[in-house]
Write a structure and sequence with these properties.
The protein is mostly beta strands. It contains no helices and 21 strands. The strands form 7 sheets. A 4-stranded mixed sheet has the order 5-9-8-7, with no helix packed on it. A hairpin with a 5-residue loop joins strand 14 and strand 15.
Length: about 270
């Protein structure tokens, strides 16, 4: 079906007239099986006829199905047909991973050597380029951190983390975010948040109880650097004017800090 054929008369006549609207020696496409009659006439106005039957075989029917016509990059798809052979190295009924959007053609040939083809297009959507972002990748114990995903539409984090919501990590951990775009394609990214411990700070004094006018020296320990309240300098003696509580903030090499306090009692001098 759909093929062209040319009918020609022979036998020594001068002219040939065909039935069925056929022109001698001119190709045409028959729509169905039919018998055509040609009338040949010579120069003596004598004529005779002959017939020929053209059999038109139908084209084979092809049904093409796909497990999915739109997939995400890296996903598998299975193409299935009712007989025939695929182009592009595709094996019927066996899943494969298409590298990009492509149109696949299948051709089927029947016992009459008639063939027909069909095509199917598989659209491959790229994966989103997901990023894992942290307000800080290094924090001190007790501090909060904010994790946010980028490059997609929605984000789901491991470790019970909610995208864009601050939390306090209890220890160093690597968090994975899965981002999904508008095509429902997903990709992942990771970020590690390091949790540094606080220093164990203590507040020390040369004496906790002194007489008015006496000097006392305050010093911190357990950290790297120390800052005192009340205008006190770590390790430098001073004369407190009254009983007071002093707070020292100690900071370690990871820039994490903690505090400790000490009270200095100042006893008044007796009145002589």
């Amino acid at each position: 079906a759909g093929s062209s054929i040319t009918l020609t008369g022979g036998g020594g006549a001068t002219t040939y007239d065909w039935t069925g609207g056929v022109t001698d020696g001119i190709g045409f496409v028959p729509t169905s099986t039919n018998t055509y009659t040609v009338t040949g006439a010579n120069g003596n106005n004598c004529s005779n006829t002959a017939t020929i039957t053209i059999t038109v075989n139908p084209l084979p029917t092809i049904t093409v199905t796909a497990s999915a016509t739109t997939v995400c990059a890296g996903s598998s798809v299975t193409l299935t047909i009712g007989g025939g052979a695929w182009s592009g190295g595709i094996v019927d009924g066996i899943g494969f991973v298409p590298p990009a959007t492509n149109t696949y053609t299948v051709t089927r040939t029947d016992g009459n050597n008639c063939s027909s083809s069909a095509t199917i297009t598989i659209n491959v959507n790229p994966l989103p380029v997901v990023t894992a972002n942290a307000s800080s990748t290094m924090v001190c114990t007790g501090s909060s951190v904010l994790l946010t995903g980028g490059g997609a539409a929605t984000y789901v984090w491991t470790g019970g983390v909610t995208d864009g919501v601050s939390f306090v990590p209890s220890s160093t951990n690597t968090y994975t975010v899965t981002g999904t775009d508008a095509n429902s394609c997903t990709n992942t990214a990771t970020t590690t948040v390091t949790v540094n411990p606080l220093p164990s700070v203590t507040a020390n004094a040369s004496a906790a109880t002194i007489c008015a006018g006496s000097s006392v020296t305050l010093s911190g320990s357990g950290a790297t650097s120390y800052v005192w309240t009340g205008g006190v300098t770590d390790g430098i003696g001073f004369v407190p004017t009254s009983t007071n509580t002093y707070t020292v903030t100690g900071t370690n090499s990871s820039m994490c800090s903690d505090t400790a306090t000490i009270t200095i009692v100042v006893n008044p001098m007796p009145v002589a």
